[in-house]
Amino acid sequence: MHGDSAGDRPKKDRILEPFWNIHTKLKPAGRLSDSFELSGLLINEVDLRAAFPPRLRNGYTATETCKKLSINFATLHRLRDEGILEQRRIKSAISRMTNYLVTPDSLAAFEEQYFSLGMLRGSNPAYKELRLIDLDRLKLRPIIDETGLRRIYEWRDLPTDPVRKLEAMALEEAAQVEEEMQ
Known about the structure:
- The protein is of the alpha+beta class.
- It has eight helices and six strands, in the order αββαααββαβααβα.
- The strands form three sheets. It has a two-stranded antiparallel sheet.
- The radius of gyration is 29 Å and the shape is elongated.
- The N and C termini lie far apart (107 Å).
């Protein structure tokens, strides 16, 4: 009887079968010895990484979040206290220390809805020269505007092309000054 039972396959295939089923891209690249042991199996590192799905982040540390959003720690704590950013307590399996991580979902939601001046400058090379005074001239109202905290604005309040609008405003102001001088 011809069947594909475990007894019909060679010994090396039976030993390695669970590891070959991880992903179709993962194939042994060779052996270090003549024995059919897993400790002597060579596997291509690129194929091994492709075989396993990428691990999702549990969250971002306070330092990572502050750098990503171009804010300071005081602003981060205010955003957390107001419920705009969500933090979770995570205990390290190795050090057993507890750390607070900003959840990836709340960080993504923040980046879609809000921005800081640093985020705006990094989002487009044309915005590199923008300053807080320019945002004030555009009449943007920050949701957070206190001493010691970074200003946070909403994307919906930002004009489509703030640089062009500022240039147009400067031209209008220059024309008004010229009219007043004549």
